[in-house]
């Protein structure tokens, strides 16, 4: 969680794409931050995470 709170947009994109590239062969996984979005997380970082995952899904 601390990573999403402190990382830059580019760092988040790279990290998320790396995670998702490992999961391509394992269908049916759930992707998210857990069961909540903490109030101290920058909303922009959460949106970058979700948008990156959606873009990745469309590429595979």
Structure description:
This is Uroporphyrinogen decarboxylase (URO-D) domain-containing protein. InterPro entries: UROD/MetE-like_sf (IPR038071). The model has no long low-confidence stretch (mean pLDDT 89). The protein has one domain (2-59). The longest helix is centred in the C-terminal third of the chain and has 17 residues, at 43-59. It is mainly α. It contains 3 helices and no strands.
Walk me through the topology.
Blueprint: H1 2-6, H2 9-23, H3 43-59
Helix pairs in contact: 2-3
Shape: globular
Helix content: 55-70%
- Helix run count: 3
Per DSSP, what share of the residues sits in E-state strands of 2 or more residues? under 5%
Tally of extended strands? 0
- Average pLDDT metric: 89
Alpha-beta classification: mainly alpha
Low-confidence stretches: none
Total domains: 1
Order of helices and strands: HHH
Q: Characterize the main sheet.
A: none
Q: What is the alpha-carbon Rg in Å? A: 11 Å
First CA to last CA: what distance? 26 Å
Task: Please name the defining characteristics of this protein.
single chain; 60 residues; mainly alpha; 3 helices
In short:
This is Uroporphyrinogen decarboxylase (URO-D) domain-containing protein. The chain is mainly alpha-helical.
């Amino acid at each position: 969680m601390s990573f999403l709170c402190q990382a830059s947009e580019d760092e988040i994109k790279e990290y998320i794409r790396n995670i998702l590239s490992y999961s391509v062969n394992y269908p049916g996984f759930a992707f998210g931050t857990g069961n909540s979005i903490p109030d101290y997380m920058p909303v922009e970082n959460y949106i970058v995470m979700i948008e990156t995952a959606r873009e990745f899904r469309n590429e595979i």
